[in-house]
Write a structure and sequence with these properties.
Shape: globular
Strand content: over 45%
Number of helices: 0
Helix content: under 10%
Radius of gyration: 14 Å
Largest sheet: 7 strands, mixed
Structural class: mainly beta
Number of strands: 11
Length: 117
Amino acid sequence: QVQLVESGGGLVQAGGSLRLSCAASGNTFSISAMGWYRQTPGDQREAVATANNDGTTYYANSVKGRFTVSRDNAKNIVNLQMNSLKPEDTAVYYCNAYSGVYSSHSWGQGTQVTVSS
C-alpha cells in the first residue's frame, strides 16, 4: 500500500503559474511511476503528466510546453510545475503512483486548481 499526500493548488489568473507536490509513503519500493491526473465534473479522469523510474515522461498534448513533471526518487516526491495556465486547466488534480510489483494504482485526495480568465 502506498499513501500519497498532495500540496499546492489554488486559484490563479490565466497566464499564471502554480506548483503541485505529492509525497509518497508506505511501500514506496514498489513504485514504478508517479504522476498527475485531473478531472472535471462529468468527465473521466485524464493523465496530465507522468514520470517513470527510468526517467521517461509523458505529457498530455494539451499541457506540453507548459507543464513540467519532476521526481525526487530519494524522497519519493513528484512535482508538477504548471506555467501559462489557462481556464481550461481548471480541474481537481490527483497524484498517482503506479506499482508494477502489485499492478495497482494509488491516488491522493485531490487538490483543486482554478484558473480565472
